[in-house]
Write a structure and sequence with these properties.
The complex is a heterodimer of chains A (400) and B (176).
Chain A: H1 2-9, H2 14-28, H3 30-67, H4 83-93, H5 104-122, E1 130-131, E2 134-135, H6 144-152, H7 154-165, H8 169-192, H9 194-200, H10 205-215, H11 229-233, H12 235-245, H13 248-271, H14 283-286, H15 296-321, H16 337-362, H17 370-398
Antiparallel strand pairs in A: 1-2
Helix pairs in contact in A: 3-15, 3-16, 4-15, 5-6, 5-7, 5-15, 7-8, 8-13, 8-17, 9-13, 9-17, 13-15, 13-17, 15-16
Chain B: H1 12-15, H2 18-36, E1 63-65, H3 80-84, E2 90-96, E3 108-116, H4 125-129, E4 135-137, E5 152-153, H5 155-162
Antiparallel strand pairs in B: 1-4, 2-3, 3-5
Chain lengths: 400, 176
């Protein structure tokens, strides 16, 4: 290595070489390394997510078409694959109109408040194990789950603000509905995942994923640590691992975890304003609700914000319940960069599967009335979530 | 008098929503699976596939002018269609049929006959009012143009679209 750098140094002037050398040292120092890897990870993750967002819109249109026996957009590019680009170009070229009586500052602020929180949520999600020894989480913080809950509810303010600042009746009704919706699902959303923290004993999302690698996914706790390459090649070891997973404690804990998965999943539909809980939008009754008055990029930010929220919501569900980046029999990134890439692929594959479920449900179910949603949230999910917490506590205390 | 509607008592399964939700999901899944293999799709891809063969006999498309079997312009420039046209899409400039012409006894024919397709509402009143059965609504429905001028059908175009119509009007024949 020293020979090589000596060889390279002949091509630079001494001053430039010292500069490059100090730059290299700075970049490889712990702080410098953290900064540039974090920057790189954020850029790449953001790129992937924004690409995924535009193709989720395309998938939504194609899948809805297939469900309704139609074809969907199939003209722009092969099978319509360039449709998202055409849509984006159209939205960019439209006039960004602000109604005369709208409150300009809040009217312009609202779309950004809807778009930014879901992107911030992505910052704490472990989207892969590790690659070349770098942990594939942008920020592994110990309050990860609380951070997710806190940040993702900010986007409701964007919707309420849009409804109020538009100074128009339909957006206003949309904003009011959004508020009423938030107070009915937010409690059960947060309470439903408390059992996970009790089981794992940590709020750090990385620790939660690591627990699931070792003990099996939250919704399918059947493969404790034994499920690796060795188990695949030796059936006896695999049976032993499965038998170890079938302990009484595991099976009993499975019940509250499935309940909390169910509540969290349903609340996530409300959180992302998707059917059957898309009351703030309700295009048939409220002409689009809170984004009625928006055009061009203002509308695009709401629209894409909804899909980004879907993706980060799916990411949170994956991380908490579906084992994050882990797959049975697949080792983590410390065994080679190929496995690291496969882990990242597994994470996104799970997200895509969940996005499909989101779309599938949207084109199947009718909308709930908003008193029905409040009833569901307050009379049913809230109680169920609280009982669930005590159930988990009992199992954790008395079943070893 | 108060009238009480007897509601069906819901079973537990119905109250839980869940069975209904899953059966709904099963139905949409079935449709999606079928549509994925191209079965049961009802979309007609317009410019390539058209519905033309299934247009009914009475379909009201673009109005056109017709000639009779001897090649005579049926229109006698009476201007009734011009007067009845609700959006005033028709403009006729009549002329006298010159002496020595075979059809001199018909006396008038249009020098210019313009139908502004940007105005036409396809109501068919021109066809109804025409005493000579010279104007007919045909089956052309895809009428486009890049300017207002291009949307005006002139006489040549109208005869080209209309073609020949063998009809009941034989009062100008020689035997009469």
């Amino acid at each position: 290595m020293d020979d090589f750098s000596n060889f390279i140094s002949h091509f630079f002037s001494p001053a430039a070489w010292t500069f490059l050398k100090t730059l290299g040292e700075r970049l490889m120092s712990p702080i410098g390394f953290l900064i540039w890897t974090t920057f790189l990870k954020s850029t790449i993750l953001l790129g992937i997510i924004l690409g995924l967002v535009s193709y989720t819109v395309y998938a939504e249109r194609r899948v809805s078409a297939l469900i309704q026996d139609r074809l969907g957009p199939n003209r722009v590019g092969w099978q319509g694959l360039l449709q998202p680009i055409a849509d984006a170009a159209k939205l960019l070229l439209k006039e960004n109109f602000t109604p005369k009586n709208a409150n300009y500052f809040y009217f312009r602020l609202a779309p950004k408040l809807v778009m930014i929180p879901p992107i911030l949520v992505l910052g704490v999600l472990p989207f892969g194990s590790s690659l070349f020894g770098v942990q594939m989480t942008i920020a592994s913080i110990n309050v990860g789950a609380i951070y997710v809950l806190a940040i993702s509810s900010i986007s409701v303010y964007g919707i309420v603000l849009a409804g109020w600042a538009s100074n128009s009746k339909y957006p206003f009704l949309g904003g009011i509905r959004s508020t009423s919706q938030m107070i009915s699902y937010e409690l059960s959303l947060a309470l439903s995942i408390v059992p996970i923290f009790m089981v794992v004993g940590s709020l750090n999302l990385n620790t939660i994923v690591q627990y699931q690698v070792e003990q099996g996914w939250m919704i399918a706790p059947f493969w404790p640590q034994g499920m690796n390459w060795h188990a695949l090649l030796h059936p006896a070891a695999a049976w032993q691992a499965i038998a170890a997973g079938m302990s009484l404690r595991h099976l009993l804990l499975w019940i509250p975890l499935i309940i909390s998965f169910f509540i969290f999943f349903v609340s996530m539909f409300a959180e992302t304003n998707r059917l059957p809980f898309d009351l703030p939008e309700a295009e048939q009754e409220l002409i689009g609700g809170y984004h009625t008055e928006y055009s061009s990029m203002g509308f695009a930010l709401f629209f894409l914000g909804e899909y980004t929220a879907m993706i980060s919501g799916a990411g949170v569900i994956t991380t908490l319940f579906l084992g994050g980046w882990s797959l049975p029999f697949i080792p983590d990134g410390s065994h080679g960069w190929v496995w690291g890439l496969i882990n990242i692929g597994a994470f996104f594959a799970k997200i895509i599967a969940l996005l499909f479920v989101f779309i599938w449900v949207r084109w199947t179910l009718p909308r709930f009335r908003y008193d029905q949603l409040m009833k569901l949230g307050w009379y049913f999910f809230f109680e169920l979530a609280i009982v669930n917490i005590f159930l988990t506590a009992l199992i954790l205390t008395y079943v070893k | 008098m108060a009238f009480i509607v007897n509601r069906k008592k819901l079973t537990l399964a119905e109250k839980l929503y869940l069975p209904a939700i899953f059966s709904g999901l099963a139905i949409t899944w079935k449709h999606m699976k079928r549509a994925l293999f191209g079965k049961g799709i009802i979309t007609m891809q317009y410019p390539e596939e058209k519905w033309d063969k299934h247009l009914p006999e009475w379909y009201r498309g673009a109005p056109t002018l017709v000639k009779d079997e001897t090649g005579r312009e049926r229109c006698v420039a009476c201007q009734l269609c011009e007067f009845i046209c609700p959006p005033r899409a028709i403009t006729i400039e009549p002329m006298e049929i010159p002496d020595g012409s075979h059809w001199r006894k018909v006396e008038k024919k249009p020098r210019a006959f313009d139908i502004d397709m940007a105005r036409c509402i396809y109501c068919g009143l021109c066809e109804e009012v025409c005493p000579e059965q010279a104007i007919f609504l045909r089956k052309d429905y895809s009428i486009t143009g890049l300017s207002r001028d291009q949307m005006v059908n002139h006489k040549d175009k109208l005869y080209e679209m209309g073609g020949v119509m063998n009809g009941l009007v034989i009062k100008w024949n020689e035997k009469k």
